[in-house]
Amino acid sequence: MEDDALLGANASAEYGAASAMGAHSPPVFVGEKEGLREKKSEWGPPADARCVVRFPRALEECLAHVDDPIIALCQLCEDDAASPPLRFAAAGCRVLSRVITFFTAIEIGVSVPLILYFCGQDGEASWFATLMLVTGAATQVPKRFIWRARPFHVNRARSTLRNATSSFPSRAVACSTIYAYLVAYTLVYPAESALHASLLWLAIAAVLVPLAAFARINLGVHYPSDTVAGAILGVAICVAGTALSWVEDLGCASCRTGECYATAAAAGDEGAGDAISWSAMASVSWGLVAACALASLALTLVAIAPPLRFWNKCAHVGGVTLGCLSFHLTFLCKQASANGRHALPPPDALRGAATQIGALAAAFVLSSALFALGKVAQSKAVSKALGRAIIVADLTLFAGEFSVMYRYILRDHAHNLTRSP
After folding, report:
1. What range defines the domain where residue 393 resides?
2. 135 near 110, Cβ under 8 Å?
3. pLDDT (tens digit, 9 = 90+) per residue, 345-358?
4. 125, 157, 222, 378: least CB-packed within 10 angstroms?
């Protein structure tokens, strides 16, 4: 076994040296004979994974003529025999790639809806949450059911990462496309036309998407063809997620135009208006709250339990996005409420600078925490240590995050709740 590891390390080093000279090695597929020895299959789908289709061999060989030269170019300095300046440049590229990977991770986007609710941008928060929920599901479907070995799995690239999941497609590139879209439309729409917002989206994506693609290729965890597929998938998610958001606005009046809010009672006018107040919290549709929570919990259980085992990040991604969407449906959708007091009043538009800075700080802390949480949930050591109890841990994590989303958002909106005398 040690000899196999040594041979694998030597093969990786030889490929790195060849890449630095502009060459690339032919594809080496996991489980095939390599000379007189059989390459150890360290990577691959779990033994109990069902309905997994391997990436077509013919397509892999065809794409290799394009993928391998680009990988070699992006890892040009990854040569142990390179001069000190080149090794320094390689280290710098790896650091830059890791930074870009952090800011294009799905955990970053998942934390945004909560921060937007905190800032009083309820319409954008609901829109972001819908898009990120679609992103989590749509990007995981191919990763769960199509297995493609990552470049470093088969010695077609060098990497210090240990990603054991499928390479196809690149979720980071898909997220970079989506984040560019969200930023562009948040900045200029609906104040400007959809055309202006689309042009801004293209301008931001023209910078962010290539950076994300380079980062993933440079780290040896994606092929260039994975990044192209990720960009295409990102565009499709933007269209589908926005369409679902429009459908939601048809059922629940849009918060982006202020139509979702209730009318607060005037001072001393008890019972006037239809806004939720602290004294009238009992009239909130708690049955709807419970139904949303149970439906979200059931959906998460189906996703993480065998035989599907859809995604080990599903619990905490769903805990945030489903929590935000359930809050919106319960407290900001008058049509969904059968009670006399229908929704929250509009948030205070005048936010101090300290509050805005606090929101940005909270965004960074929360994003970091969710990123770390995703890595922990992804860890084989954690899964092995918990065994069958991993499902209970995931459900506990989901329930905790779901309840925290409710409590945090409602507490932030609390200063807007009217208090009857």
Report:
1. 96-416
2. no
3. 777 654 566 666 76
4. 378
